[in-house]
Predict the structure.
Amino acid sequence: MKVLKFGGTSVGSAERMKALVQLINDGEPKIVVLSAMSGTTNSLVEIGVALYAKEHQKANSLIDVLEKKYKDVITQLYSGAPALQKGRELLDSHFNYLRSFTMDLFTVNEERAILAQGELLSTALFHYYLEEIGVESVLLPALNFMRIDENEEPDLKYIEAHIKPELAKYAGKKLFITQGYICRNAFGEIDNLKRGGSDYTATIVGAAIQSDEIQIWTDIDGMHNNDPRIVDKTHPIAELSFDEAAELAYFGAKILHPTCILPAQTRNIPVRLLNTMQPEAKGTVITSKVSGDSIKAVAAKDGITAIKIKSGRMLLAYGFLRSVFEIFERYKTPIDMITTSEVAVSLTIDNTRHLEAIKKELQEFCSVEVDTDQTIVCIVGNFSAAKQGFALRVFESLKNIPIRMISYGGSENNISILVDGKLKKDTLVALNKGLF
Ligand code: ADP
Ligand code: ASP
Ligand code: MG
């Protein structure tokens, strides 16, 4: 069984939803994971912000605008009265639910329930469409099996144990539709896998059912060698290894959710990135195979905070780094990059929720400097130690860019540098010119 995920633009209009049918209706067994229609999750975030601020009038008018959009979608999507009626009832129930929050207490739990509405809507609308045109499908509620644990990590054991019986209820059925992004947390409340999380749903489901292949269908023909939103003349990469793809996703290649490669890698399931607008394009295939020995791609991750920790003779004093890391561990704050010298350590974090508390504890035994709005630029390829000259090519390309940190040698497929966020575009353009 394959898992196919279609992103926001791939279900972004009635026309796009109709076009999906030819990509999924080949009689082969599959689970189709859908995102919310493009723009919906952003609107739901805005509605949540208004509700938090008790700006009920604003929330209501945002809800009205979104509802109008969906009313247009159903009139374009369905041709017969029964499907239209079902569509109207669906919209009434979801939009009345959204409106109910203008009267209720609003907490983080209600916010998450609001964020889940986009995927619940897109999957039901698509399922009704299939029904109307006579294509048999089963709507699988993701909230019945997708779960994260108390560390907000997918609970693969639970998911495996719950999705299998769910599928088994429909023996002989081939086409299953489910929601991306949404899940329940360790307390059973509605939660989500963070923005872009439908990719993660697809790879988690793929791992849970030991799928033959996971396909991520989006609006571009695979992973490109650089960020196409920033740099002109990028090109798709035919093959990537799991490690290479995981680095690119984690360090900012928006085409993939930051941590979605791991479940596929753990179970060695190929991931194919494909373009719904150009289904015949080869895209990118991600497997355990390491191919080529060159620089393949660059990606950039914004909003990084660099922390420089200084103390006299710190490296000779063993245990120093442990006391530093323990503080980050206690505050559940992952460190991305790290470089050391005899007197100082520089490291970067992305999650600044506990920055002040971390700083205070560090200052008890060393001096601390913090720089915000930094960008990690990650250069990915196969840099096996036997080959020379990769670092030279990278730094030659960046001769006019001030670099704050460099990390090389951590793995065989990554060189990371830290630059001021304002230099991100210049850095990506310079690397494109120098490397590709
Ligand atoms: P979806 O809604 O299908 O999940 P996303 O917007 O999340 O789609 O991801 C696809 C977008 O990722 C592309 O339109 C492209 O602009 C952006 N992107 C950023 N970096 C890359 C890259 N290296 N390769 C391909 N696409 C990238
Ligand atoms: N709808 C969610 C988002 O916009 C999840 C996704 O599209 O992957 O972030
Ligand atoms: Mg996405």
The mean pLDDT is 95. The first helix runs from residue 14 to 24. Residues 7-10, 35, 196, 218-220, 223-224, 227-229, 253-255, 299 surround adenosine-5'-diphosphate (ligand 1) (CB under 6 Å).
